[in-house]
Amino acid sequence: MKGAIFDLDGVITDTAKFHFAAWSQLASEKLGLKLPASFETELKGISRIESLERILDFGGLRDKYTAEQVEELAAEKNGYYLKAIDTLTKDDILPGITRLIGELKEHDVKLSVASASKNAPVILKKLGLFDKFDAIADPSKVEHGKPAPDIFLAGARAVSLDPKDCVGVEDAVAGVAAIKAANMTAVAVGDPEELGKADAVVPTTDDFSYALFEETWEKSRN
Ligand code: G16
Ligand code: MG
């Protein structure tokens, strides 16, 4: 294993609750909708615009807004979201992640971020992790979102590595599909039934380690 390509939300920090709160605020204040709690999981790893399109579909409102209005609504949600994540600090890094980053760096593993979030650099700065990563793939430069492999391929390319030498790290079904489509080894955190396509699934981020990543990579390549 030469590289580890990380999803952000749900792997490095838990921003899903802030995304959901911001979407809920937009839905109730601007769209007259109440979002069911299931949207918090459903929108994980899904881009800003596609998330909004799914919300509009849920409310049967897709045809009511022009493309320009959809962009405005998405920008408004991002405003709510940015306000919410302003309070993030290193205390919001998920358990075991700082240790894992240290272990991977000790073994000269390149680290890159493959998040659907355009806010990834801001979030990593708030967490004090920005300088630990060798690269952050830019989601606005890739054509297809997760489950397409594009963002993970961009993450490997950004650290000049062949995808087959990389482990991708995810918490979402669409993200695991993206990793496998990129021909990487997938390590996931969460429900093993839901994330069954991954090469290894652990219950918490504290179960991640260099040894687990290396062993899973070795096995999946043979
Ligand atoms: C994250 C979240 C998604 C969010 C997307 C875009 O993805 O899981 O819910 O819609 O980023 O975020 P933004 O509006 O900040 O660009 P990931 O890939 O880090 O799990
Ligand atoms: Mg995620």
From TrEMBL:
Keywords on record: Magnesium, Metal-binding
Essential cofactor(s): Mg(2+)
NCBIfam families: bPGM, HAD-SF-IA-v3, PGMB-YQAB-SF
Pfam families: Hydrolase (PF00702)
Cofactor binding note of this UniProt entry: Binds 2 magnesium ions per subunit.
Gene Ontology terms: biological process: carbohydrate metabolic process
Amino-acid positions noted as binding Mg(2+) in the UniProt annotation, renumbered to this chain: 7, 9, 170-171
Site-annotated residues for Important for catalytic activity and assists the phosphoryl transfer reaction to Asp8 by balancing charge and orienting the reacting groups: 115, 146
Sites where the protein binds substrate: 7-9, 23, 43-48, 51, 77, 115-119, 146
Name of the protein: Beta-phosphoglucomutase glucose-1-phosphate phosphodismutase
Residues of the active site: 7 (nucleophile), 9 (proton donor/acceptor)
A GO molecular-function descriptor: beta-phosphoglucomutase activity
Family: Belongs to the HAD-like hydrolase superfamily. CbbY/CbbZ/Gph/YieH family.
Domain of life: Bacteria
Xref: InterPro entries: B-phosphoglucomutase_hydrolase, Beta-PGM, HAD-like_sf, HAD-SF_hydro_IA, HAD_sf, PGP-like_dom2
Keyword Magnesium in annotation: yes
